[in-house]
Amino acid sequence: MWRKFKVTFEHPNNGYQETITNFSILWCLVFGSLYFAYKGIWRHFVLSLAIGIFTFGVSWFIYPFFAKNIIATQYRKNGWLEI
Q: Rounded to two decimals, what is the model's pTM?
């Protein structure tokens, strides 16, 4: 089964659309925890920063593979609609 390359979410109140692509892995790998802060997912910003410090940065090579799913889950929790 092929995974979707990009997923688009729409805010129900104002119609703003946000697209999540597979490049989330790359951006999270390059910018680390700051990528989650940029997306406004503060819980994972703090969590990835703490785990990164605790594991001396090793987790920063694993955490990016979950970035797309983390962001999509956060949008769904906030009430955004997947289109």
A: 0.86
